Amino acid sequence: MLRPSSCHTALVLQCCDFAQSLRCYTCREPTDISNCRTAILCPPKATVCTTTLHSVETGYPFFGNITVTRDCEEECNAYDGIGASKPKSCCYTDLCTDDRISSGVRSSSAALGLVAVVASAVLYCSL
Questions:
Q1: Cα separation, 118 vs 113, whole angstroms
Q2: pTM (2 decimals)?
Q3: Exposure of 76 by Cβ count < 10 A (0-12 exposed, 13-18 middle, 19+ buried)?
Q4: What number of CA atoms fall less than 13 Å from residue 33's CA on the CB side?
Q5: Separation CA 107–CA 111 (nearest Å)
Q6: What angle do CA 97, 109, 26 make, to 5 degrees?
Q7: Where are the transmembrane segments (predicted)?
Q8: Hey, CA dihedral for 77, 82, 84, 90, is it positive or negative?
Q9: DSSP label at residue 74
Q10: Pair 26, 72: CB distance under 8 Å
């Protein structure tokens, strides 16, 4: 049977194994939103995925061609006020800038995995 100090050490080590960086879609040059689908693993300090709107082609018929850039950033400096020439939005979960889903509403698989590991370690240590 593990002593409490050994149990805490095992718990910390398990949590460290599951820690991972945020994943975001990225396109650093203005790209059609439907083509900006390259997923990357962000640097460790990046905590947010961003989307900057560059243009929306208008006219008749409206096809909805939207040009964006996307990237990982350390903090959210969103700006989408009236008159913004390049509105920017932020979200905080893996691949949350996917235009087919609501931003920020997805569960992070890393967070769910971490919860499972912590719960199993606590249960194991209490036995």
A1: 9
A2: 0.59
A3: middle
A4: 18
A5: 8
A6: 30
A7: none
A8: positive
A9: S
A10: yes
